Amino acid sequence: MAFKSRGAALSLVFALCLPLSLPSSYSAQKITAGASCKGLNKKVDYKNKTYTCIKKGNQLVWSKGVAVKVAAPNTSSPSATTPPKSNDPFSVYGKDGERFKAVDEYGAKLVASRKKDVASIVSILETPSNEAVLRMTQNAQFAYSVYEQLMPLGFAPKWIVGESESWVKAQVKDSCPNLAANIQRNAGAASCRLTLVWRAADVNDDANTRNLMLVQGGHEIFHLYQQELWRQYWSITPDWLREGSANLGMGIILTHFEDRKFFPEYGAAQKVERNPK
């Protein structure tokens, strides 16, 4: 809205500046005890003291002044900018928290009803005394006992784990040549009713790779169930469905494997592998 006159504009500017330029009563006056004052019982705060205008004889003078008490800052209450801590362990995953929590709750029920008396998988290991390989094999057996209650596979899956390229490829070159030709270092694959894991510790053996190797049981054995269920449609099934559902199964297995001692939360387990497909 435009002002009707220059005088009106100047009046508005003056009105806005007035509170900033005029001091409050006595604020600019130097107050000293015994100096004359006006207004009996008038109180003024000056340099952290409160002075009172008192009558002394026939004169009004300022009192000696009383120190002003400054309230200490309240440090007991949390800062307004600090969000309250949540008792929900899945809150750290933000918008994915509810989804991870729902899957984890379903996984707990699924694992509770697993077939503990399921047959043993057929383990073929290049280094059967290696602790990491044995742990991977236990994870694969655990996954098999969970998945078997959903859809019986109809056979005991082969679980082949090796460290050297020549040994790994020799195990499947006749029974599954396509798998032998395409297996990658520190990766797993499933085909021909068997699973194959190439644990190339000499290439990479950091913590993330060891975690990735551990999940191969839950991941690759899940692929065997997919292949039996989808059969001729397996080759045309989109990767997001094949790998996404296998990662879902892997997350449930990895979370509950070893009684939640490894990854107590589904969200943490899910972060082990992020397949770009």
Gross geometry: rod-shaped
Radius of gyration: 38 Å
N-end to C-end Cα span: 59 Å
Please bin the fraction of helical residues: 25-40%
The unreliable regions are: 1-28
Task: Provide an overview of this structure.
- 24% of the residues are buried.
- Residues 1-28 have low confidence and may be disordered.
- Helix content is 39%, strand content 13%.
- It has 277 residues and is an alpha/beta fold.
- Strands 1, 2, 3 and 4 form a four-stranded antiparallel sheet that branches.
- It is built from nine helices and eight strands.
Give the topology:
Layout: H1 6-21, E1 43-46, E2 49-56, E3 59-62, E4 66-67, H2 97-112, E5 122-125, H3 131-147, E6 158-162, H4 165-172, H5 177-182, E7 187-191, E8 194-198, H6 207-214, H7 216-230, H8 239-256, H9 266-270
Parallel strand pairs: 5-6, 6-8
Antiparallel strand pairs: 1-2, 2-3, 2-4, 7-8
